[in-house]
User: Fold these one by one.
Assistant:
Number 1:
Amino acid sequence: MTESASTVIRTQGLTKRFGGLVAVDKIDLEVVQGDIYGFLGANGSGKTTTVRMLLGLVLPTAGSVEVLGAPIPKAAGRVLPHVGTLIEGPAAYGHLSGAANLRLLDASGPNPGRRDRNRRVEAALEQVGLAAVGSRPVKAYSLGMRQRLGLAAALLRQPKLLLLDEPTNGLDPQGIHEVRDLLLDLNARGTTIFLSSHLLAEIEQFCTRIGVLDRGRLVVQDDLATLKAPTGRSVVQVDRPDDAASLLDDQVEARTGDRLVVRTDDPAKLNRRLVESGIGVIGLSPERLTLEDVVLARTSGTADRVERAS
Amino acid sequence: MIAVELKKLFRRPRTWATLLLLDLLPTVVAVLLATTHLGPRPGQGPAFLSAVLANGELFSVAALAIVLPLFLPIAVAVIAGDSIAGEAAGGTLRYLLSRPVSRARLLVAKLTAAVVFVLTAVVVVAGTGFAVGSAILGTEPLSSTTSIVSVSGSTLTVQQVLVRTVLAVLYVGLSMLGVAAVALMLSTFTDSALGASLGALAFLVGSSLLLTLDAARSIKAYLPTRYWLSFIDLFRDPILWRDVERGVALQLVYVAVFFGIAWANFTTKDITS
């Protein structure tokens, strides 16, 4: 496979069953190097199980996982040192300081040795804005500080791939902004980012490629730009809606008050036509779907709502 | 990984609190003995207690006999039961395994840390026993000419006592391996450290209970607590090796079986904590 060099995550027919429950159902993920991949799904749709399978924590019932071109969990020992992760919230030993926690983590498993350990730890803390936190034990940290510490742990060995689950959880708006800038900066320097979240707005602002999981199935996987491409309709607001409606007649798809939804390939031509007929155009914009529209149209509702089959 | 686990173990305030509490009971016993001079009649109460009134140095062995049946197993079950389940409950297990730390290696490191804890605890208890005993019990000075009476009634030289005390410390440490392996095994099955520790203790209580039951005679030789107090045989003259050897072999079998189960379970388990 020639393309596998740039494919960072590839799953084929990935399935996980817990007893009779199918948590993840034959999904084929494809994440390419340099992507900021947004992995969307309602609570309980199988996001976390999928992420855990990517890390070899949960073993698939069927299908295959490849991360950085090597099979997981078989090659986990070789691959995972290049992956940084934050799964379902940060975790640390509460009685130790943040730096002590990072030093312990750095010493666990394959590591580049103790010589540069303190420097690595300080650099990671610096990156997430915890440089001056000192020797305070983690149990005295705020939720946001713990989240930052979790990010620092993920960044500790300059990973090629970051697998992040709700990385802005618990942060204030300023903190969210900082983390986003940090991730964009890392991405610009070549880190591929896989971000799982149920926050549409966060994904929409940030990601270049989207996968949507619905009850264990991958229902959408595409570039955000493609998903949000113009729909071939424009919304116009005019001063004489009745005249406009009769002028455009068969092109009008919907009308509310003085707003018309008009099917057209060329919004400029539509504008000219209205103006030439003496109709004043107050506003005109090509209609674009929001990510929310896409997700709502293709998913079946929230999975943590359990209803009786009728 | 072993070094990391040891660091974690000895940086925990709980480890030190446990060691302190383990020392407390023998110390209290020593103080009571020293102030009342009321030793248990020979053949009753914990081993060696009647002897220590004359020879305070022997109290290190008596201290081991005091903590061995209950306190030491509790401490070991708590530490080993927490090993995997504690990491799982705290959420750190998923980060360790995605470093990645190989699951088998993590188990070996956890068992090793538990063993080191047991040995530390035993050495500390024996050391405290020696220090407390020689400070407040038995004034008879020890030298190569005055010697200590063995359990069999003959006398032992200081050197012999020293060697046998070291052997006893090792034997008591080894006796705890079975508990550690059971607790570690349970720890891979649950995310509740408390559950794993109590499960291991239930196992021991069950074993001790069966030992008192005549109907269970045919299985007694295979019960984990059967040879625990056999370290007293090390102070017979000559040393009665039979039960000590069986005790060592039995503990090793328990470790092999339960560590095997722990390994089989943990390396194929979905980590969902």
Number 2:
Amino acid sequence: MRHCDSELHVSGRSEYVDDVAPPANLLHAAIFGSPVAHGIIRSLDTSKALEVPGVIAAFTFDDIPGEGYIGQIVADEPLFADKKVVFHNQPIAMIIANSHEAARKGTLACSTKIEELPAITCPREAFKQGEILQELRVFEKGDVDSIWDSCDHVITGKVDLGGQEHMYLETNRCRAVPMEDGQIKVFSSTQSPSATQKTIASVLGIPMNKVEVDVKRLGGGFGGKEDQATQWACMAALAARSLNKPVQIVLNRVDDMQMTGKRHPYKQDFKIGLTKEGKILAFEVDHYQNSGAFMDLSNPVLERTCLHSTNSYAIENVRIRAVPCRTNLPSNTAYRGFGGPQGMFPLEAAIAEAAKELCVERDWLQSQNIAQGGYTFHYGQNLEDNRLKQTWDQAVADFDLEGLRSRTKEYNDTHTMSKKGFALMPVCFGISFTKTFLNQGSSLVHVYTDGTVNVTTGGIEMGQGISSNMIAICSRIFGINHERIRCNSTNTSRIANISPSAASATSDLNGNATIIACREILSGMKKVVAKELKCDASEISIKDGQVYCGENATELDWNTLVLKSYFSRVQLMAHGFYAPPNISFDPIKGWGRPFHYYTYGTCLVEATVDCLRGTYSIDAAKVVHDLGRGIIPTVDLGQVEGGLAQGIGWVTLEELKYADDGRLLSFALSNYKCPDGDFLPDDLEVKFLENVDNPGGPLGSKAVGEPPFMYGIAAYFAIRNAIDSFSSTNEDEIKCPMTPEQTLHLLYPNFEYD
Amino acid sequence: MLIKKQITFLLNDELLTIETPPVLVALDYLRKNKHLTGTKEGCKEGDCGACTVMVGELISGEVKYKPVTSCLLPMGELHGKHLVSIEGLNMNQPSPVQTAMVDCGGTQCGYCTPGFVVAMTAGLMDEEIPLNKKGADYAISGNLCRCTGYRSIKEAGIQAIDHLAPKLKNKPRIPTLCDIGALPNSFQNVSEKLAKIPPLQDSTLPDTPSLPFVAGGTDLLVQRGEELADDSPSLINNTPIAPIVEKGEYLVVDARTSFEDFANDPLIQKAVPDILSYNDLIASWPIRNRATLGGNICNASPIADMTSLLLALEAELEIESPETNRLLPLKNFFIGYKQLAKEGHEQISNIHLPKPKTNTFINWEKVSKRKILDIATINSAAKIVIGNEAINEVHLSIGGVAATPLYLTKTSQSLAGKTLSTETVLEAVDLAQSEFNPISDVRGSAQYKRLLSRQLLIAHFTKLFPETISEEAINASL
């Protein structure tokens, strides 16, 4: 089986929000954003916009009938700027016109007078000025303060860790259609249909049962449409309801990049203490999260940063301090890994620095400290098995690390201006929403009298293959061919109170719910034929659409079974609900068992640096990954490779640049560069641990969406490893991403021109 | 003022005559006017390839197809041409490219996929693109995917080629692809259909050309697309583009020659032996099919790639208007940031390139954040003529360090007559720094540009004369 939408995709027939034939009288929205990053609005004039031919209406904060402030954790973000602006291009007004072009022209005719205030873009600066979104959080284990003296080596450092643009190929978009009796139907490119439904209801001041949100598929999400698709849907709904006409909003790329938040940049301080034998005795890290203007999801993102600050390593004395800092940028938000990558990076940097001081290989130091079964993390959860170490050992063996080491040394000994390097990255990533209540999934399975099946779940198809997984699960549980099963759009009228498609958990939660629904239907069906076959229902099974009694095929096939069940008045549709057991987490104490289980893996990246030009190539990326028992091989592999690719991009090319006044300088695909086919290596190899089960995942599978992202961190240290063979670097602040600019500076640290 | 234009063209398998605003881009026409929504908008600036289409043009009785980004393709240019969107590639059964993309898992969210399929198919249709891994990679140089990590897409390209290459061996590609079910049969008789379209009787055009001149539009429509959509600028690519010819000591190049045609021209390849390797570092295949030399020069970006090369090649511009026709050295053309030594209505008609003398060595360097489809942080070109004992002439250019593309006059002059040595090079790169004063911007800090410019100027010499100037020796002296 392949990704179920593949054939539609390759022929351009798959439909996204604005590909569906437009309803009559469809109007178009465009956004007028703030020209400055911080200031007080002294005047706002949209009257000129209304003179633009085709423009029909303008909306501002004052036109919101219900609650004007939105936000899933704290409702602190005005849908349109309310008296002040706090980031550049913050939406101030929405122009509605009979064409997209006219609406855009309308926005150009808007004007505002803003008394400009100083903008803050650095989280350290924000913290100094008391601009924090929440009090500092501390996670502690052991006794850090008293252990430093017993360490043979203590190393401190600073990290400047960049953010990342989601760069889903499909920008944010939504179409809202008014229906009878004040209802509204919304087609949105969102990862959170229920949050969208709830927020629209709140903004419009109507009950949730009048708002239907439908999501067919997303042209990529990666977290960027978890919380930040909501506002655009609210705006379209606001205009649609007010004008009683369908309204569509499609952000152009530049607006999307300037108006929506990204992966959080962090500033970090670390301190690591080791014995001379290379045992890490203590690790301390302070995270200053660049949260942007509002809370958005900064709090849970920072929480995961804290939980993953020791990544895969066993350290007995740990202190993690973290604070979300308010800056004049769009609210930074969920992004594949959800703070985990930012948690893991400083420790990897600390290990690299420590390896230099101890004159040992970085990977040796890593291997000496990898956590093994029985280890208890600083938040109280135990590592219950040894599969993390297994992936490391297999990577070292299968990818011939020692051979690579000697080949690299030989290359570097014989080349002056070209150097090779490599690095390993182990990943131990916890699966579950750390907000425990979100860990619930629902599925609605319909079996029709012709034997075909429809499944609807709370999972959003954003390319990750959730629809395909749901079909595969139905197919295996029912014992019928996957071609008889379709997966429907995700719709709040069919599934209520949907958790966002996030935290890698979508397939787990909704897949397990689907199994429950399928089994419920199946159990009724089996009872019907058990009578006829004169056997016990438990002996009946279905394989390849044929009914078996024990080992013996019967005359009955699936279609007959379905019809018999129908005429026997047995239910052929069921709703399944699943909530994983044994998870609980006290966010105040920072203690508990937040994760259902962990996904593990180890990645090796090789790089070559051109020491004349400061450019580099990623030569190979090889992974051993623990997938449990995979559901669909091409889909699972695609998740690992895609996550790795984004992770490599984050630490290499992808650089968000802001001007001091808070304007985003890398605001288009011409100046924000993500990896392309040439940049990513042809030598990309993924191996899965064999014959490993996972009781927590549907069909023994493991969540796969986010963990591979962090493999990309290996690329950063592979490049540094190569640079170390050319020059000795000792920068005040370790900067990520390792752009060609950063690389050349590290190659020639003494260059200065004045 | 908007003056609509009547054009007749083939859209997939349908012959259409429409009235269109000249600068309505094909992407909007396809999606909004025709509801052909397989073509996707990702960035509307030619940087993602999600909107890739093919344009077929009748050249000497044969239709030649090129992939282009439809977001920067003015409809006004399509008279007599064949516009192919993803829908025009669909058959009852998936094509080998489509099958390979499905089999290899080359599609996830699907939004970029039609663009990849169009580009990969275009690669198979172009006789110049080799049927191997290099050709497969070349075809997708303008396409971004955010989901897959590309391994599966690259594998799909190889799979399709492995399947088709034996069948295409020694056969004309397009008819053969049709015969074996890899292209719809509607591609069989396109040349007859296009030949029947009468040339444009353009009575609607005003006597004086309206500005600006739009050639490939790959930068102009990015910067001013929304504004120009309501206007009727002169689409100067509407008349046939002259082939590159030798004229005495010069090669004469029609200013509207695309990057791709320039790099693939045998005369240019003789004059600039490594032009194809430079070409790979400039934009992407679909953009190079549109971007023109004249446009690159007139756009006057300080980091214009082709311009930096042409500066070192001592290019001269033939500048025309109804009243005048004059020649101007390219190095005298830039008088300030985006300020040109030409009147608005004057047009660069041709570029004159002196043919290299014997013992001429040419090199072009570019560093950008991403190697492919990225704007240079610094680019630089060198043309060095070596005499018996010493350097005869040097022409160095550099982009990205000043308000204009820069010809390094002092440094170039200083090297003439010198003996080629490590010291000479180091002195020259030092001197070069006094000729410019870079600023910090999104492409890099001023310090980085200083350092990188030094490195790239050194690279010319270490690459061209590795026996005399070794990277090691230079590095040891830095």
